[in-house]
Amino acid sequence: MADTAEAAPAVSGYALVLPAGWRRIPVQHGTRPAIRAVVDEVLRKVSAGVSRDGLTPYRIELERRLSEMAKQARSAGGVDLYLPVEYTHGVTITASFVVSRVTLPDPPAELPDADQADAAQFIAYLMSADGDASPAEVAGAGAARKESVAAADPAQQIPYGSRRVDYMLPVPGQPRGMLVVTFSTIGDGDPDGKFAKLLVELFDAIMTTFRWTRDNVTRK
User: How many domains does the chain have?
Assistant: First the structure.
């Protein structure tokens, strides 16, 4: 009898739920209009009583900073940049995260069955080789999570330390495909402080909403 089962639709992207006041900036296409929209939104919130000329330097500097963040994300294979644009309880949230798409290289020769290794096996190998990575579950599937703290480095124009969290997710149906979601925050200037850790908890909560999206066309 012929096999009539239909393959699951291919993964076409992802979706997640953002907290109020967070925005997405695509970094591969449509970056400039997205940055302008974010800047316009920010300026509307602070423009009361300020002339257009008075806002111009702020606009230029904000667009420059966001463009630089998008450029850095793009150079690392980034797909989307997410960041807050509103105050929360009167506090500026100094945090962001980037979603990047990665195609895995050939796995190390010491990996068992290296010639057939897929992204899930590769992530398992990374966790075994790096004690900082731990198992996680995202969208009902296995993933890896790594949390670290980077020190300030004035020589490299990095005035503050930062706390970073990386999620590594195998892309369903793409043996060497992986999505990396990287969060970074300086907190209130202390990456080991309570505020930075609360922001990490917020990011972890965002990741619980992550879902893969799929093509509408069923592939046989």
Answer: 2
